[in-house]
Every structure is written in structure tokens, then in C-alpha cells.
Design brief:
Shape of chain B: flat
Helix content of chain A: over 70%
Low-confidence stretches of chain B: 1-12
Structural class of chain A: mainly alpha
Distance between the termini of chain B: 32 Å
Radius of gyration of chain B: 27 Å
Oligomer: heterodimer
Number of helices of chain B: 14
Number of strands of chain B: 0
Shape of chain A: flat
Distance between the termini of chain A: 59 Å
Number of domains of chain A: 2
Mean pLDDT of chain B: 86
Number of helices of chain A: 13
Strand content of chain A: under 5%
Largest interface: A-B, 104 and 106 residues
Strand content of chain B: under 5%
Order of helices and strands of chain A: HHHHHHHHHHHHEEH
Largest sheet of chain A: 2 strands, antiparallel
CATH topology of one domain in chain B: MetI-like fold
CATH superfamily of the largest domain in chain A: MetI-like
CATH superfamily of one domain in chain B: MetI-like
Helix content of chain B: 55-70%
Radius of gyration of chain A: 27 Å
CATH architecture of one domain in chain B: Orthogonal Bundle
Number of strands of chain A: 2
Low-confidence stretches of chain A: none
Mean pLDDT of chain A: 84
């Protein structure tokens, strides 16, 4: 279209208004924060592939060259953490399932069945406070309870002949139960928000038809809860897998056979000569692997769980 | 099957001769009421949670009144006193950690909220790949503090960390972000802001998306600039989201322990970053001063209740409970 008579300056001037400065600025800011959020993770990722020499001699966020490349850190980290990974899995899956179930039935009893509004409200408030309290407020009784009163170390002794279990694995059992107890309030809240958004009509109709409270739960509420069960499961699994304070205080040391992956990771790759950052980074990724996979697959559900966590 | 009766209060009046029958009738009806039938649903989870949370708090308070310390001895409840609290109020460590706790709470919460709001408004505009970008912004929140602490330890490394490498481009540094007592609290807060601003963004985005579109249109028709529209019309309506985000962040800052422990790899973190939460865990699980740490835990609990109670009251008033 452009005619040869146009000067160069003029043709540039004709292009310019087509570019939207605001959009460029916006894209620039978005990319800046993209870099801000990804750079610690990216830097850790490339560092995990570097030899100990390359870790200090290369720029941290640039992938290693051929001479500085190694998979050794990953295999060491995996060997070191695999016991913790198994322990974390054995702990996280049952405690997530139990807390999701208990949270769901509690929310059902408090929202979809009306009995006494004031009493229901008081119970709700007690649940909500349970979400927010700092766990430090129950740590001393908790360890006193499990270790001195229950005598958790001998708890699973009758099962002691099984090849996988050692006596100390009973500490893992204590952590599992503890997670269930303190996860109930948040699961209850997540389900409550969802149940309140369900239409009353279906449940009212079922009541008029004479369905009992149990059969309403099993036949109507539970099938309708499927998407929310997914959200709560993903959210809770991530939270329990990532948790550290209960593991530290109830299991104690990262060398314990019952140590969860977060506990093992906290002792990885540091000795008298300093921190082996390549190994640390590889270990961090191995420990985060299940939650990363879940996050990549179900980012939306995770965000939904977070947004309604209040 | 079930007759929907909230309570037995609505039973018909009784004549003397039928009292016993009526009593049975009432019992029968009560057993079929929604209260009784829904009882197992909420009461089982409620009592498990109640024992853990409120039983734990009560027991913790009792322990804080004793002199319980050391291994494997039972606390002596015979002469309860407030000695541990008196000791805590005079302990220089408690004073320092309280100050640090407040600095962490205020700076961390304020900056995270502002950044989260900014990011939410940014992503609320029409931009490409919005979902993908949101996923990346929120990614740190899916990681354990144990993991992110390792990343930031490496970021802040004096000789080879990315932070000093980037600053080196501008001829600054290198700074000892972790080793310098003047810098370490700021470094920790910055890392926590990195981890949590995606969360604040998600809360604000949910708030923004619940607002009707026509408000924005109306403001535009009136000739208001984008900035003015947000400042005058949109942001004031985000009050509820702001309160929620602020409470979550404040409570987190109050109990932040894992990140600090993992970054320094021990119970004793540098004094400049020592907060009440780390002091409490150290007193209990490193030094076995159970009663004393229970008293510090009670202080933490009271501080958190001072945040939670007004919040729940506000939520109730808003009708959003």
C-alpha cells in the first residue's frame, strides 16, 4: 500500500499509533513479575544439574555447560530422600482422606440440616477459631500426650514383626492422626462454603419425600460434592505434605526412620565443609515433586482452595 | 421417614392422664428429629477437633502454671502460679522477639497486600495467557517453606547467589544478606513476600471478579481515568477481601516458624530474625523448658485471638459467616 514517495520518517510515524504503549507497558510489568516469581525456582533448578565446581564458577541462573553438567546430585538426593518420600506418602494420603471425610460430614451437619440456628452458629465459631490458632499453642500438650501419656513409641509394637514397620514408625502414626485433628476445621469451612451455594430445592424435595438425613447425604450431597472433594483433597494433600512443625516436634530428628520428607530435607547437604547447594537444590525439587505434579495438573483447584481459605 | 421437627418444643399440650404416653411420644419424636439424626455428622468431627484444639489450649494453659521441665517427668499441678508469665515479661529474649514479631507482621502484611492488590489489578486487565501467568505467580504458595528456604538460601549466598550477581551488574554489593544482622530480617521478609503475594493476589482477584462489570463501564462513561476508577470506585469495594487477606497474613507472620528454622537449619535463628514463634519452639523442644514455652505459647495465642475475634465479629456483621 505504501507509496514510494513517503519518506522513511513518515512511514515509521504511520506504524507507531498501531502500537499500543499501554499494552507494551502492561506486558513488560507482567513479564517482570513473571521473572520475579520464577527466578528462585529456576535458579535452583539449573543449579541442581551443576557439578560442585560449576555451582561456584557459573552464573547461577544459566544452565551448566557440558563440562559442568551432572545428574549425580539428583541421584544422591533421591537416595537420601526416598525413605522420607515413602513416609510422607504413608502419612499424607490417609490423613488427607480422613480429614476430607470428617470435614464434609461436619459441614453437612452444620449447613444443610437446620436444627438450632444459635447453637449451630456457636459451633461454627468454635470451628473457625480452630483454623486460625497458632499450632504453637498446642505443641507442648501434643508432644506430652503422644510421647509421655500414650507412649507412642510402643503403640504399634504388636505390629512390630511386619517387615516395613519399626517401632519408631509409630511416631509417623502420631503425626498422621495429629494432622487429621487439626485439618478438620479448614476442610469443614471449604465444604461449608460449597454446601451453602447448593440449591435448597433438591434437599427440601428429598425431605418431603421422606428421605432420611443419612440417605440425603449419601444419595444427594455426596455425589454433588465431587468437585469440592477434589478441591479440598488437592489443597489438604499439599498442606500436609509440606507441613514441618508437627513432624519436627513429634518425630524429632531427620535421621529417624519415621522422618517425613520435609524433615529429611532440612538436614540435607550440609556438613563441616559448608553447604552443597547443588545437592540442596536437587533435594528441594525431589521433596517438592508430588506437590509440583499436583499443582501443574490441578492449579485451578489449588487456587480455589486457597481463595476460599478464610 | 423422618418428620422434620427442629426441636421437641412444638409438642401439643398435655393432659395429666396421658403424661407417660406423651413423654414416650416426645422421646420418640426427639429421636427422629433432625437434631438427633444430624448429631453424628457434626458431633464426631467437632469433638475430635475440640479435643485437639480446645483441649490442647486448656492443657497448655495448665502446664504454663506449673514448673514443668526436663524429660519424662510429669508436670506437678499441685501449686499453680503465674511465675512463668512473670519470668516471660522480664526475659530480654521475649522482649526482642516480640519486637521482631511486630516488625515482621506489619512490614510483611503491608507489602504483601499492596503487591497482591497490584498483581490482581494487573491480571484483571485483559491480558493474554492470564491463567498461565496466574499459575506462575501462585507457584511459590504450592511449595513447602522447607523447600523455598533452600531456594532463598542459595539466592542470598554472598559469593554466588543470584541477588548479589544481579546487584553486581549495577556495581553494588556483594552484601551478606543472611550473615549481616542488619539485613537478615529484611531478607527473610522479602522472601516471605515472594512466597505470599500470589496468595494475596488470588484473594483480591476473587474480590474483583465478584464486582459487576457495569461499574467500571459507568466510571469510564463519566470520563474517569483507569487509575481514578480503581482508586475511587473499585478498591473501596474490596474491603472484605482486604480484611480476609490481612488476617491470614498477620496470623501467618505470628506463627512463622518453618521458614526460619529451615533457612538456618537449627532452632537458634539469628537474633535479628528471632520471633516469638521460634523462641517458643526452641524453649520447648531444644531446652525442654515445657512450662516456660507453654507460657510463651499462651502469649502467642492471646495475640492471635486479638486478631481473630474482631475479624469474626466483622464477618458476622457483614453477614458473610
Amino acid at each position: 500500500m505504501s507509496k514510494p514517495t513517503h519518506s522513511r520518517a513518515e512511514s515509521i510515524a504511520r506504524i507507531l499509533p498501531a502500537l499500543n504503549y499501554r499494552k507494551i507497558g502492561l506486558a513488560f510489568v507482567v513479564m517482570f513479575f513473571f521473572a520475579f516469581f520464577i527466578s528462585p525456582i529456576w535458579t535452583g533448578f539449573v543449579t541442581a544439574f551443576k557439578t560442585t565446581g560449576a555451582v561456584t564458577s557459573t552464573t547461577p541462573f544459566i544452565p551448566p555447560g557440558l563440562d559442568g553438567f551432572t545428574l549425580e546430585k539428583w541421584s544422591t538426593a533421591f537416595d537420601y530422600l526416598s525413605r522420607g518420600m515413602v513416609n510422607s506418602l504413608v502419612m499424607s494420603v490417609p490423613s488427607t482422606i480422613a480429614s476430607v471425610f470428617l470435614g464434609s460430614i461436619a459441614a453437612y451437619g452444620l449447613t444443610l440440616v437446620d436444627w438450632n440456628e444459635r447453637l449451630q452458629f456457636s459451633i461454627l465459631v468454635l470451628f473457625l477459631v480452630g483454623i486460625f490458632i497458632p499450632y504453637q499453642a498446642v505443641l507442648v500438650p501434643l508432644s506430652d500426650f503422644w510421647i509421655n501419656i500414650v507412649g507412642v513409641d510402643g503403640l504399634l509394637e504388636p505390629l512390630g514383626n511386619l517387615p516395613f514397620f519399626t517401632a519408631r514408625h509409630s511416631r509417623l502414626f502420631a503425626v498422621t492422626v495429629t494432622h487429621v485433628v487439626y485439618a478438620i476445621p479448614i476442610c469443614m469451612l471449604l465444604f461449608r462454603g460449597y454446601y451453602m451455594s447448593l440449591s435448597d430445592e433438591l434437599i427440601e424435595a428429598a425431605k418431603i419425600d421422606g428421605a432420611s438425613i443419612t440417605s440425603i447425604y449419601r444419595r444427594i450431597v455426596l455425589p454433588l460434592s465431587k468437585p469440592m472433594i477434589g478441591v479440598v483433597f488437592i489443597y489438604q494433600f499439599t498442606m500436609i505434605w509440606n507441613e514441618f512443625l508437627f513432624s519436627l516436634t513429634l518425630i524429632g530428628s531427620s535421621s529417624s526412620p519415621a522422618a517425613t520428607v520435609t524433615l529429611v530435607l532440612s538436614g540435607l547437604g550440609s556438613d563441616l565443609t559448608g553447604v552443597d547447594f547443588g545437592l540442596r537444590m536437587a533435594g528441594a525439587f525431589v521433596a517438592a515433586l508430588p506437590t509440583l505434579i499436583i499443582y501443574v495438573l490441578f492449579a485451578e483447584q489449588f487456587a480455589e482452595g486457597l481463595a476460599s481459605d478464610r | 421417614m423422618a418428620r422434620s421437627e427442629d426441636t421437641v418444643a412444638g409438642s401439643p399440650p398435655v393432659s395429666a392422664s396421658t403424661t407417660s404416653e406423651d413423654w414416650r411420644d416426645r422421646l420418640h419424636r426427639f429421636s427422629k428429629s433432625d437434631f438427633v439424626r444430624s448429631f453424628p455428622y457434626w458431633f464426631i468431627p467437632f469433638s475430635i477437633m475440640g479435643l485437639g484444639v480446645y483441649g490442647g489450649i486448656g492443657w497448655n494453659t495448665l502446664i504454663s502454671l506449673t514448673d514443668y521441665e526436663g524429660f519424662r517427668e510429669r508436670p506437678d499441678f499441685t501449686s499453680p502460679d503465674l511465675e512463668m508469665y512473670a519470668q516471660a515479661l522480664q526475659d530480654p529474649a521475649v522482649i526482642v522477639t516480640t519486637k521482631n514479631t511486630f516488625i515482621l507482621m506489619i512490614v510483611f502484611t503491608t507489602v504483601t497486600m499492596l503487591l497482591g492488590l497490584f498483581l490482581a489489578i494487573l491480571l484483571d486487565r485483559e491480558i493474554r495467557f492470564k491463567e498461565k501467568i496466574q499459575t506462575i505467580y501462585l507457584l511459590p504458595m504450592a511449595l513447602s517453606f522447607v523447600v523455598t528456604a533452600q531456594f532463598w538460601l542459595w539466592m542470598y549466598n554472598v559469593n554466588n547467589g543470584l541477588v548479589n550477581v544481579l546487584l553486581g551488574v549495577f556495581g553494588l554489593g556483594p552484601y551478606n544478606w543472611i550473615g549481616n544482622p542488619d539485613l537478615v530480617l529484611g531478607s527473610v521478609i522479602f522472601a516471605l513476600i515472594w512466597q505470599f503475594s500470589g496468595y494475596a493476589m488470588v484473594v483480591f482477584l476473587a474480590g474483583l471478579q465478584s464486582l459487576p462489570d457495569d461499574q467500571f463501564e459507568a466510571a469510564r462513561v463519566d470520563g474517569a481515568s483507569t487509575f481514578k476508577t480503581y482508586w475511587r470506585v473499585i478498591i473501596p469495594q474490596l474491603k472484605s477481601s482486604s480484611v480476609s487477606a490481612a488476617v491470614i497474613l498477620l496470623i501467618f507472620a505470628l506463627k512463622a516458624f518453618t521458614f526460619l528454622y529451615s533457612m538456618f537449619g537449627q532452632y537458634r535463628v539469628p537474633q535479628a530474625t528471632d520471633i516469638l514463634a521460634t523462641l517458643m519452639v526452641r524453649e520447648a523442644f531444644q531446652l525442654q523448658n515445657w512450662a516456660y514455652s507453654a507460657a510463651i505459647a499462651t502469649i502467642l495465642l492471646v495475640m492471635s485471638l486479638a486478631i481473630i475475634a474482631p475479624y469474626l465479629h466483622y464477618q458476622h456483621k457483614q453477614g458473610s459467616l
